[in-house]
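We emphasize that the prediction below concerns an isolated chain of 46 residues; any contacts that depend on oligomerization or on bound cofactors are therefore not represented. The input was used exactly as deposited, without trimming of termini.
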Amino acid sequence: MSETMSRLEIGDIAPNFSFAGQHEKTIELENLKGKILVIFFVRSLF
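Result of the prediction step, given as a token string:
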């Protein structure tokens, strides 16, 4: 019972935080993809 209560509290208090975190993570992933693409592009040139 206490576990579900804490989950509910976290869900009520920090939905915005989790959304912001997800957004930052997707941005990081996009940056990482970009870097990998650049590395492959540079390697294909040489």
